[in-house]
Design a protein that fits this description.
Elements (H helix, E strand, L loop, with lengths): L2 H9 L4 E12 L4 E10 L2 E5 L4 E14 L1 E6 L8 H9 L3 E6 L2 H7 L1 H10 L6 E6 L17 H4 L8 E7 L2 H5 L3 H12 L4 E3 L6 H9 L4 E2 L5 H9 L3 E5 L7 H4 L11 E4 L5 H6 L3 H10 L4 H8 L1 H6 L16 E4 L9 E4 L2 E5 L2 E2 L26 E2 L2 E9 L6 E7 L2 E2 L2 E2 L7 E7 L8 E7 L7 E4 L8 E5 L2 H14 L2 E6 L2 E7 L11 H17 L7 H6 L9 E4 L2 E4 L4 E3 L2 E4 L3
Parallel strand pairs: 1-4, 5-6, 6-7, 7-8, 8-9, 10-11, 11-12, 18-23
Antiparallel strand pairs: 1-2, 2-3, 4-13, 13-14, 14-15, 15-16, 17-21, 18-19, 18-31, 20-21, 22-23, 22-25, 24-25, 24-26, 26-27, 28-29, 29-30
Helix pairs in contact: 3-4, 12-13
């Protein structure tokens, strides 16, 4: 379509394709609600009011808002591919996502970026990406690839690339790591915003981090932290995901003065929440239920992220903007009824249109290299006290404690009576069989083991268990599936979720994966698992950029000190 044709349609010199009548239009610029008609031509809004149209649709006095935008999400965390993720969030009014593909990139490097870019084509949703900035996130883990600034260079001109994704290596920024700074400089030259990731970083350390040009942060967990970052000019992405939910803590910060510098994101959203709770719409509903003005909540879901990412063709109901629209009846509890993408109706009465085509699935190799015969989970007792990772409910941050060592036959063992379980992370990309061993509290297992090939960010195999035999059984099953989630008890597999795409994603729909997850979680609960989703909690225990104590294939990482530390606090005297 030429620009001339669009202008002609806007002038009324030719019929528009669709006229939406009897609409209550959410004006995210003036924070108002206007009764009117919306004219759409070739996928774009061209005007308001009376237009000659090929088709008309009476919206019956319902509200029309711009399609919602998720400002920061990892598609892989939903355990499905781009197509199935898009279909799932479209039902909830999300028409644009800004995804960070660093999960699959940690497995396959630039091949992972290529895979996600290919998968984004011909979708009924806008799929944009930030280029992964930290692959691997640190040198204290073994990823499937290592991306330097030069590796990212060819992607800056890609139309689907809109940012440098979360700069998790905040010590690298603060201490002027040359390659980290080279990535930042390249993003600046490409005029792309730089997304941040700096949990708990404040004071002069924060100022040093922001001085590099970091523009946002989605890791605020306390009001004080978010307030300091907002005052320092940071765009605050309020995260409400599956594992980390920060809206309650940050809600007091949202007001008429601050809201334009804030937006919503999910970061990680599992199938159960996508199906039963929703996506960005669920955050909007929750914020409104807590007392936030509904138009402000919608503005934070639309215009704010669009402006931040410089996507001036979306984010508002206005001439020249893409006709990505959501329709709902209740302003104070917006449940999405209809969705338009590029002026075409894709959701009617809360259901996807049956003729909405799925693009062909892009093929992807697997990466599951390890020698099971070489695995040994035993821990020789070397001291009286060990460092222990402590889970924190509904957070990806962890605590750490010291515990008197439970010993049997000169080996440190799990002790379910203390809720103490053994934890292992095994390198799976190069076949090195490198393994880190530690202990964790908070899972509640009384027997058996849980294993997963989803272990942020390097996605090695992670396994937690009450005994070594079940841990080996679970790891074996993960490898044989080409990746996935497993529950093992008495050396038998009781439930699985296969994830053959990079060991991260299923080829099935969100609904199918959710059914598999239901079975998996019930199997985990039968052996005592206590967190709402123990596999989500497990997946973050290998992430050495989130405080406080984590485990990688290279050993225990004290994130506050940013170094590998020994399991034993002090050794036996010989």
């Amino acid at each position: 379509m030429s620009l001339n044709e669009r202008i002609k349609a806007a002038r009324g010199d030719r019929p528009v394709d669709l006229l939406l009548t009897n609409a209550l239009i959410i004006d995210v610029f003036g924070k108002d609600i206007i009764e009117g008609q919306i004219a759409i031509y070739n996928g774009y809004i061209v005007g308001f009011g009376d237009y000659e149209a090929k088709d008309q649709l009476d919206l019956g006095g319902r509200f029309v808002a711009p399609g919602f935008i998720d400002a920061h999400v990892h598609i892989e965390s939903a355990m499905v591919g781009v197509t199935e993720f898009g279909r799932a969030v479209l039902l909830h009014g999300t028409t644009t996502i800004v995804a960070d593909p660093h999960e699959i990139t940690n497995v396959f490097g630039t091949l992972g970026i290529d895979y996600m870019l290919q998968s984004a084509q011909s979708q009924p949703i806008n799929v944009y990406y930030g280029l992964p900035s930290c692959v691997p996130a640190t040198a204290m883990e073994s990823a499937g690839a290592s991306l330097k600034a030069a590796d990212l260079a060819p992607y800056w001109t890609c139309k689907n690339v809109v940012a440098l994704a979360e700069m998790m290596n905040f010590p690298g920024v603060i201490h002027e790591d040359p390659d980290v700074l080279a990535k930042i400089i390249a993003a600046k030259k490409a005029a792309k915003p730089l997304d941040g990731h700096a949990p708990g970083v404040m004071g002069k350390q924060l100022f040093a981090y922001l001085s590099a040009g970091i523009a946002s942060d989605h890791e605020c967990t306390t009001l004080a932290e978010a307030k300091e970052k907002l005052r320092a000019g940071v765009h605050i992405m309020v995260r409400e995901g599956t594992c980390s939910r920060n809206l309650d803590a940050l809600f007091p910060l949202i007001n008429s003065h601050t809201a334009r510098r804030m937006m919503w994101c999910t970061d990680d959203r599992h199938p159960h929440d996508l199906i039963y709770d929703g996506h960005i719409d669920a955050i909007v509903r929750k914020a409104v239920s807590k007392g936030l003005d509904p138009v402000t909540a919608i503005q934070m879901a639309t215009l704010n992220p669009a402006e931040y990412f410089r996507l001036d063709h979306i984010g508002a109901v206005a001439p020249g903007r893409q006709a990505d629209l959501v329709v709902f009846s209740d302003l104070y509890r917006p449940v999405i009824e209809d969705v338009f993408y590029m002026g075409k109706q894709v959701v009617v009465d809360g259901k996807l249109l049956p003729n909405l085509k799925r693009p062909p699935l892009v093929e992807c190799p697997t990466s599951m290299k390890l020698d099971r015969k070489q695995l040994n989970f035993s821990v020789q007792a070397e001291g009286r006290h060990i460092r222990v990772i402590d889970l924190i409910s509904n957070q990806i941050i962890t605590g750490q404690s010291q515990l008197l060592t439970p010993i049997k036959d000169d080996k440190v063992v799990a002790d379910p009576d203390q809720d103490l379980l053994k934890l292992a992370v095994i390198e799976r990309h190069k076949g090195s069989n490198a393994m880190g061993l530690g202990f964790v509290r908070g899972f509640g297992l009384q027997k058996g083991a849980l294993a997963s090939s989803v272990a942020h960010d390097s996605h090695n195999i992670i396994v937690v268990g009450e005994n070594d035999r079940d841990m080996l059984t679970a790891v074996t099953a993960v490898q044989q599936m080409g990746g996935g989630l497993v529950v093992a008890v008495d050396e038998r597999i009781t439930a699985t979720v296969p994830l053959p795409i990079a060991g991260l994603m299923s080829k099935e729909s969100v609904a199918t994966v959710q059914q598999q997850m239901d079975t998996l979680l019930k199997a985990a609960q039968r052996i005592g698992a206590t967190p709402g989703d123990p596999f989500m909690s497990l997946s973050f225990l290998a992430l050495p950029v989130i405080p406080e104590l984590k485990l990688t294939d290279q050993g225990l990482v004290d994130v506050n000190r940013f170094e590998v530390v020994p399991l034993f606090i002090s050794c036996f005297k010989h």
